[in-house]
Design a protein that fits this description.
By secondary structure, this protein is an all-alpha fold. It is built from 3 helices and no strands. Helix 1 packs antiparallel against helix 2 and helix 1 runs parallel beside helix 3. The mean pLDDT is about 85.
Length: about 110
């Protein structure tokens, strides 16, 4: 488990980025999609906890560090919205295909 430190945050950031990338590239019906989404939620919570601990550390006052974390937060949020939209579209398309197949089977 990552420590509540800058190194721990760096590790969590890399894992979040990796999972978001994976979610963008796998089919919605992939078996491990739900596991990846759950892991992503855990990592985001962990990231927030680390950020809260670091924010309370009065010795960490580097503006560039906090600007970089804000930028990452915005990038992760934007990427998560894209992934959610993409997955909803894929699931909707899958539902439509099922209905078309069922209509075809019903009309035989």
């Amino acid at each position: 488990m990552e420590t509540l430190s800058v190194d721990g945050l760096t590790s969590v950031n890399a894992q979040v980025a990796s999972i978001l990338q994976t979610l963008r590239n796998i089919p919605a019906e992939e078996q491990n999609t739900d596991d990846l989404v759950s892991k992503l939620q855990e990592l985001i919570e962990r990231r927030q906890k680390i950020l809260n601990v670091l924010l309370a550390d009065e010795t960490l006052v580097e503006a560039s560090f906090w600007q970089a974390q804000l930028q990452l937060t915005q990038e992760f949020s934007q990427e998560a919205l894209l992934v959610r939209g993409q997955r909803q579209s894929l699931l909707h398309a899958g539902s439509q295909r099922k209905r078309q197949i069922n209509m075809y089977n019903d009309n035989r």
